[in-house]
DNA sequence: GATTTGTTCGTCCACGGAACGAATTAAATC
DNA sequence: GATTTAATTCGTTCCGTGGACGAACAAATC
């Protein structure tokens, strides 16, 4: 027997697993109803899954007419993944299990020495996170690492990550895989944040969205049809290089993009200085504006105009249902509200603009989402073209008490 | 037997059809080798396909050791589709058959009365194209119509199509389906052009590309991972609304986008007038520049700078492997070369920029591509998630003598 | 004779449906 | 209130069928 004839079992198995992940605990009869497969097919598959340790009996139904049913549940720690959010100042790691719970979040300041030190730090944090849940690290099958910068898939290097010295010259993916002993996926952190919001955050209700992260710099995560857009060199969503805000043809705009120069935190501070003559960091400018400082208010207005233009740009190109603002600066309601007011003045179509729901956990949750989807795919769909096991919906996750 | 158990046959059938479409004429033994299915499975399926009239014997192999093989081929006119490119000034229609040949291109000036008159005209042209190939119109299964504007899938109206009066208030899709008696798909013409270039044009070697059409106005077709990006309201690629070029917050920018106002043909002519005081249309400006007119040259420089910024914008957001310039103005080498020179000055990553290979036939070929893919899907994949029959590659099509 | 094509035959996987026993609740009767 | 009966649901066994594969073999050609 070759590929094709076993494929129906594969499909059946996937749809059973998906149903259990979504609806556990659930009886075999219910699975049969949901999947449309016959009861004895379900029984066969359930027997196999139980033998292999993926699921187990957890109880029985009661209280309604008819025979009680045995209910099955995922064995959550049969396989887990590690999710990591590497920032310029701190690293966070978490473990996510097969039932899609995100567990044991640990955190540390980023090792300033960069290079292999950070690789080792990540590996240590992952082990620590696993240990904290009482899990043997061998249960970890995959690590997803969100990084600020553009991972280059061919070489494993991470380009444009100024806060992590040395990562543009070592094969980070290989080093991490080696250090952890499992496959690792390195992905841009803003992309992951978008994936996170799409799973259980502000974008859970739409498959076409863009997340704009505004902090020290500006970045974007683009999703089309529920899939992340990575681009040919993992550089999609580099909104900092949108050619307006400052003169895009000035040579410096090749290093720090035209928009980033005027919309990044430095640019905002500079604008305030130009208007008022005073030096202040972004937080101080927000405070000053709240206290009625004219120039600070003007600075925020100007900033929001640029942000609105950035939103208009992505809306013009990918026409998303929603644009999510995130990052320490992007989530400020002063900005979000200004964008609400300004966007209709420069873009004719309605675009829903919202602040991030997951905040600083976005990238970590996104890493979990990517990792779990990838794990499911590796374990069960096994190369079936187009077949995927959807993650449980935001509604289900809320029900299970996973707060954002 | 229900869905699941028949699925392996479905998959086998799809992969046999794909192989025949790609490699016809081909023997059953070769199909078996290519698909990995066993010889007798292929024989069974071939028998069924022949009975249903999809394929037929066309010859026998000879000249090599061993028994001669019977070769099979698609019955090309067993089912065909109609492809239509509706422009503001003319309508073109073509028939494309199952073997993916695009036949019998007919053309007419667009009926200026708009509305149902244009619907009727399209239907007539489609019938005419079929008749020209000696095909009974009942062979046509599907029509794909490229239109300038944004089709609204919910209502079937076509928004923002100023040259076709009335189409923003009638259900065009339904009217066409009714008039033709077959399902019809209405799609933005620039999107289709992108799809066409991706199939057998300048973008045949990459799955992430953006086509920018520069003519009277400016539009974009975005492909990510080999799929068209339509956006939540079919308005992806509305590059005219990129917020630079003119002041995006001027109220008029809500009607004609900021970039379109300065990069559309009117904007170019206006720029020339401002610089030189002379009135000229775009073609005359190109001619004047060729004759050494300083202001005309300056106008083109300015235009190319804006175009380069538009390219930079899409490159920053979706990071395509290639940007294809098309449209009567966009393909001019004077512009393409200037963009080649200017883009590296305002965008740090390499992006391949090329002129369209299909020219004015792009949308028509794209419509054929969309239609054929959809027809294949309807006939054989029949709702199998993720399964697709790929169109024959550009190389195969070239071999068959389909010139761009 | 070597090689390739295409058919026939037997086998095996996998799904579905019917029938049935088991387990439980709801209703009816004593 | 206790007991019997009906209804319902769960899960298994058994059998039929679709469909793929491999082996063997006939046919056709160099």
UniProtKB/TrEMBL annotation, chains A, B:
Record-linked InterPro entries: ATPase_NBD (IPR043129), ROK (IPR000600), WH-like_DNA-bd_sf (IPR036388), WH_DNA-bd_sf (IPR036390)
Pfam family, one: HTH_24
Stated family: Belongs to the ROK (NagC/XylR) family.
The protein's name: ROK family transcriptional regulator
Organism expressing this protein natively: Mesorhizobium liriopis
Taxonomic lineage of the native organism: Bacteria, Pseudomonadati, Pseudomonadota, Alphaproteobacteria, Hyphomicrobiales
